[in-house]
Amino acid sequence: MATLIDISNVTKSYGAQELLKEASVSLADDQKVGFIGRNGAGKSTLLRILLEEESVDSGQIARHPNLRVGYLRQHDPFQEGESALDFLMRDSGQPEWKCGAVAGQFELKGRFLNGPVKELSGGWQTRVKLAALLLHEPNFLMLDEPTNFLDLRTQLLLEDFLKDYRGAVLVVSHDRSFLKAVCSQTLELKRGKLTLFNGDVDQYLENQDILRERDERTNATVLAKRRQLETFIAKNKAGANTASQARSKQKQLERLTLTEIESAESTVHIVIPQTEKRQGVALACEQLAIGYPDLQVADDITLEIEHGARAAIVGDNGQGKTTFLRTISGSLSPKDGELRWGYHCNVACYAQHVYTSLPDKMTIREYLEHESAPGTTAQQILNVAGSFLFKEQALDKNIKVLSGGERARLCLAGILLGNYSILILDEPGNHLDVETVEALGDALVGFQGTVIFTSHDRHFMGKVATDVIEVANGSVKSYEGDYDAYLYRVKKEVADGHREANQQSVAKQEQQSKQDAPREKGYGGKIKEARKELSAIERKIAQLDEKKNSINEKFLKATSPGQAQELHEEMQPLVDEIGELEVRWMELYEFLEQ
């Protein structure tokens, strides 16, 4: 196990804001780490520092000589008119057959591989970027919110890719399901300090709760002891026979200190003003057709959503989820059919086209006061504003100076303070951190009104959804099953796609072997022997990896330092043997590529 990046006593400030304060952590070549922290804590800044796009104020960052960083690009790297295959070949310098093979891991084939890449949806373009990333053969991947705007299938493909990836991974994400599936360790940035925990994000947050409860119990004991000592001192400090005892107790009192409970400061609690609980149909669609003047997205939509339901709108990117939400919210007119809301439904909509048109001349405080339900107190407004990272000193900023993410959070805060019976939410968690997404989910579960929403955060979807509506292949229908059932079906479809892709890959390899036949004669039997040894090494590495993963699972559950040390000693020979086999594999691979 080699250390790829060692961060030592790093400090980084912007003006009076200190994002990193003598922060230290080491990241090794076999770690897959989920990176969490509040919005504005400095996660993206640290990534830019690791990419050498920003410098530190003090401290050191040591990089391994063989470090090869791969960063998932957020910008558009494509040229006009080029296909995904053209881009992969241009970007990586690799031959067509290799680019096609790697693209196949992300189900890039047919028009998705050979058609204009700029015409693909954001999710498919992300698949192309991931394929390009893999072709550069990095040994340390950094991904900043990779699941934003990715549909479920693309998320599952990305998960599979990262699970099988033989290298280090650092992932910033608010999606707990994604982090738990991919990362076995958790790194938190809080108050300028970096804390690395040997466990996934759920285990880390659970451990934080346990530590906080322990500290609270300790503090309660200390306070009780303080009161006893203070009472004894007050009674006995003036007595001639007891004054010395009182002085001794005073020294004991001075040694009693309370433990600072940091997590209490970061607790997020969101309360949505309750609406009248209703029964019956909230929304009815009859033979509805949706789309744009020159494009019909879906038709023959006939469904009902009951009052009190929390309906999750699911489906792949580009199928029409946002078009459906925009139609029912009234920002798009139906192309045909009928759409009816229930009697006295008060509808609020959160979506990109809404939060980009906030009133620029208002301050944050004025906007939240204007949007709040009658009777909302100033303290309630401050609490919700604080949950969305608008501290009291910032409430008098004009909306016109806010970034896109700040506008999105402000719009969502205003909606949650209002008195609405129907909430339509399009990707409400995209600009929020893990704790705030969790608090928003809790608030929506306790809301008596109706929620119609879409999200790419599986943990959030599973927590909130009571009903599932699928948008696919030109139709919008109620799904017969809960969100877990829908997730199971999509996972099975992705797995079936992997099997089909593997079969095609085998066929391509056989075809490539036939094309290489003349060269093989020139090399005599060496080519066959090399290929045979290569296959044997791959099988051996797979077997050792299984043993290593089994030991690692036990290591994560170790209950004592001794047990952990024994498991580490048991694992080390496997790590060494895998390393030797990988060196030999690379030698054979380079020989066969000549």
TrEMBL record:
<feature type="region of interest" description="Disordered">
    <location>
        <begin position="498"/>
        <end position="525"/>
    </location>
</feature>
<keyword id="KW-0067">ATP-binding</keyword>
<dbReference type="InterPro" id="IPR032781">
    <property type="entry name" value="ABC_tran_Xtn"/>
</dbReference>
<dbReference type="Pfam" id="PF16326">
    <property type="entry name" value="ABC_tran_CTD"/>
</dbReference>
<feature type="domain" description="ABC transporter">
    <location>
        <begin position="5"/>
        <end position="223"/>
    </location>
</feature>
<keyword id="KW-0175">Coiled coil</keyword>
<dbReference type="GO" id="GO:0016887">
    <property type="term" value="F:ATP hydrolysis activity"/>
</dbReference>
<dbReference type="InterPro" id="IPR027417">
    <property type="entry name" value="P-loop_NTPase"/>
</dbReference>
<dbReference type="Pfam" id="PF00005">
    <property type="entry name" value="ABC_tran"/>
</dbReference>
<dbReference type="Pfam" id="PF12848">
    <property type="entry name" value="ABC_tran_Xtn"/>
</dbReference>
<feature type="coiled-coil region">
    <location>
        <begin position="527"/>
        <end position="554"/>
    </location>
</feature>
<dbReference type="InterPro" id="IPR003439">
    <property type="entry name" value="ABC_transporter-like_ATP-bd"/>
</dbReference>
<dbReference type="InterPro" id="IPR003593">
    <property type="entry name" value="AAA+_ATPase"/>
</dbReference>
<dbReference type="InterPro" id="IPR017871">
    <property type="entry name" value="ABC_transporter-like_CS"/>
</dbReference>
<dbReference type="GO" id="GO:0003677">
    <property type="term" value="F:DNA binding"/>
</dbReference>
<dbReference type="InterPro" id="IPR051309">
    <property type="entry name" value="ABCF_ATPase"/>
</dbReference>
<feature type="domain" description="ABC transporter">
    <location>
        <begin position="283"/>
        <end position="498"/>
    </location>
</feature>
<protein>
    <submittedName>
        <fullName>Putative ABC transporter ATP-binding protein YheS</fullName>
    </submittedName>
</protein>
<feature type="compositionally biased region" description="Basic and acidic residues">
    <location>
        <begin position="511"/>
        <end position="525"/>
    </location>
</feature>
<dbReference type="InterPro" id="IPR032524">
    <property type="entry name" value="ABC_tran_C"/>
</dbReference>
<dbReference type="GO" id="GO:0005524">
    <property type="term" value="F:ATP binding"/>
</dbReference>
<keyword id="KW-0547">Nucleotide-binding</keyword>
